[in-house]
Design brief:
Helix content is about 10%, strand content about 30%.
């Protein structure tokens, strides 16, 4: 894989530091555990589903800070008293998965069901940031018009 030097762009741009930091942070050897899905459930609604088979809800933590969502799992060790473990195919290792969230995306809730951790997200754009329609004045008007007001006597 090729590596790109972004240093010349740092010198000629202003305000794109976060974007370049994200590009620098891409790692080709990113861990694939645990697997996850990201789905769009509505116009402004999203869901992240993380496969956390074998983890209980008290062994998982979800933290949302600024534009970062962090999901951590740490399996508490138990001594098997039922017998000898011959093969362990279910991963029980600790993990940390970080998601970069867009502006105005907030976490609405999380649930654990059937070995999947579902995190519900919604994009809540403030009214001041939403697009609005601007009325266009008619072209028949040649300039500003005076409005007469009646004063009650």
């Amino acid at each position: 894989m090729r590596t790109f030097d972004l240093a010349p762009l740092y010198r000629s741009t202003v305000g794109f530091d976060r974007l370049f930091s994200m590009l620098d942070g891409f790692d080709t050897a990113a861990p694939g555990y645990p697997p996850y899905n990201i789905e769009r459930t509505g116009e402004n609604d999203y869901r992240i589903s993380v496969a956390v088979a074998g983890f209980a809800d008290n062994e998982l933590s979800i933290e949302s800070k600024e534009n970062t969502l962090t999901v951590k799992g740490e399996k508490q060790t138990k001594e098997e008293t039922n017998g000898e473990l011959l093969y362990q195919g279910i991963a029980a290792r600790a993990f940390e998965r970080v998601f970069q969230l867009a502006d105005y995306v907030v976490v609405k809730g999380a649930s654990l069901e059937n070995g999947l951790l579902h995190i519900n997200l919604v994009r809540e754009i403030p009214e001041a940031k939403k697009p609005r329609q601007i009325a266009i004045n008619g072209s028949g008007n040649s300039g500003p018009q005076a409005v007469e007001s009646k004063v009650a006597a």
